[in-house]
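Posted in: Structural Biology > Protein-Ligand Complexes

Title: Requesting predicted complex, pyridoxal-5'-phosphate in pocket

I'd be grateful if someone could produce the 3D structure tokens for the following input. Sequence and ligand are given below.
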Amino acid sequence: MSIEDQGSLFDSDPEVAKILADELNRQRTTLQLIASENFTSPAVMAATASVLTNKYAEGYPGRRYYGGNVFADAVEDLARERVKQLFGAEHANVQPHAGASANLAVFLGVAQAGDTILAMRLDQGGHLTHGSPVSITGKTYRFVSYGVTPAKEDGSGERIDLDLVRDLALRERPRIIVAGTTAYTRIIDPVPFREIADEVGALFMFDAAHPAGLIAGGEHPNPVGVADIVTFTTHKTLRGPRGGAILCNQEFAKAIDAAVFPGLQGGPLEHVIAAKAVAFAEAMRPSFKDYASRVVTNAAALADALASEGFRLVAGGTENHQIIVDLRTFDADLTGKAAQDALDRAGITCNRNQIPDDPRSPFVTSGLRLGTPAETTANMGVVEMATIGSLIGRVLRDHENERVLSAVREEVRVLCSTFDPYPDAIVS
Ligand SMILES: *Cc1c(COP(=O)(O)O)cnc(C)c1O
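-- Reply #1 --
Done. Output follows.
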């Protein structure tokens, strides 16, 4: 049977086609408030679905192990040049399959097993790859962790404790100091980290997985040129395909490239790299600056709406695309897990999250993390954020009442119908 004979996905595999259609429907009819998610453009998706998925391209442009890589080289060179221009970087590696592989490649490239790495505590906003005992990072390197300052009544607490970063750096003399978080609502200024790294002779890595799009859009300070190495994901605020990338000075280029391939990965996903190139070009457009600014404005509006519903916000609010809600003052018995489940049934998708010094386990938690990147892409604005805040309040005040949940589910469906991320439904 030739490829043409196989017809569309629906004709050749209705079972998978049906699942994809259902997922498209879910994304279009429920609210996507997971802070690490976004809706990619049809152009990004077209590149992801391209014939480059067929190509093996181990190595780097001009230095591949297999033949036939003229166009793989062209697309990877284009992606590298675009991302260097976007962030003002000397060197780029666009091959990491994900943010986790980008981080691991950096550690592999510039540290030895057993070296000390200073990073953010996982239960205060750090990522699994910042030394969790269940991650290969935590098993291979000796992580020491800093956290945030205590909560304060006026919301000025729960900021990265830079005094603690410096004290730990002086005491532990880490090989690498890592800045960057997965659940933190304030701007991270790379400069004080640079100063501490210089004082103790450490390398400084900035993990910009979350704010990459806000940095590209000019909303947050650019760590490139301040940090020695910057890693990020391409699928969060940057709105590209699922993947990772690494930027660094020439000094580390060889070590980083060797760590990604052959150190950690095999053949690169050139179809995803093509989609990264598309996303980097999209992020260079003036409309992306506007997008990044609306993401932040919307998060502030959602934070205000949630505060007026009676929720305590970790760190007193937000300066980025995230909001972290402490549920304990709203309802001492309501766990993050129960809140996430109730909101899910009401068509509001978000994730439970630990709050600083959470008395509950990471599986249960006392908090929720919400984000605005996806629904801002779908064109929602501050009016819709106020509506969403009150819908969340309604659900969580009455989270075991199925009538309330289905009434909100219907309102969500109506709201989403005017803010359809894929009005032409050309993707599945
Ligand atoms: C999301 C995230 C990662 C990992 O990205 P994956 O693509 O899920 O592997 C790494 N670091 C931080 C801070 C993140 O938020």
